[in-house]
Write a structure and sequence with these properties.
210 residues, mainly alpha, 0% strand, globular
Length: 210
């Protein structure tokens, strides 16, 4: 996503235009869809890994993370309409999926934080997850405010006369990826320590044969 914002900035303004429109930029569709699908699959893999590491993620955290990943898949499979209005079923599905992407991961991180705090090995990452999740929620609220401009263009003056919805959306996404990355890095760290502890555990000697 960062690559798209830099490589195609001359064709799609990253300040004003949502990332969904990269599918209509020459050469942008494949990296946008691929990154979305791989990120969704990465979240599913992260959930499996955390469950294997003993984190009690069942219930609301897993549901929220899972639905967010499904929204990523839907947003990749069903492109938005290349117009200010929703004109197709694919565009409608994309809009609902986009709303889930903006809202759900911050709630997932906040729901996961108490579960992480139950394990001493995972407590170091709790503060980071909470902070990034709150940041994503605040930025998502700001993005919703910018969308109200579509209902009343006079409100654009609140943002200095510039529609900043595109950059706010990308910032929300950046904080979301930060939550995922923080959990993934800590999962690797916890798993590595567990592997080293298992490797260094002496194997009990076998009893002599009678």
């Amino acid at each position: 996503m960062v690559y798209l914002s830099v490589a195609y900035r001359d064709q799609l303004n990253p300040i004003t235009r949502p990332a969904s429109y990269y599918v209509y930029v020459d050469g942008g569709r494949a990296p946008f869809e691929t990154s979305s699908i791989l990120l969704a699959l990465g979240v599913f893999g992260l959930l499996i890994g955390m469950a294997g590491a003993g984190v009690r993620m069942a219930g609301r955290p897993t549901v929220l993370f899972g639905v967010w990943a499904c929204c990523m898949l839907l947003a990749a499979i069903f492109p938005t309409d290349d117009s200010p209005d929703i004109e197709t079923l694919a565009g409608l599905i994309h809009q609902f999926a986009g709303a889930g992407i903006l809202a759900l991961l911050s709630f997932a991180g906040l729901a996961a934080a108490p579960r992480l705090a139950e394990s001493p090995a995972w407590r170091p990452v709790v503060g980071i997850v909470r902070l990034l999740s709150i940041g994503a929620a605040l930025l998502a609220a700001g993005y919703v405010m910018t969308r109200l401009v579509q209902l009343d263009p006079a409100m654009l003056t609140l943002f200095g006369g510039v529609d900043i919805g595109g950059i706010l959306q990308r910032m929300v996404f950046g904080f979301d990826i930060g939550v995922i990355a923080a959990l993934a890095v800590h999962l690797v760290r916890v798993s590595w320590h567990a592997l080293r502890a298992w490797r260094d555990t002496p194997v009990p000697a076998s009893p002599p044969c009678p």
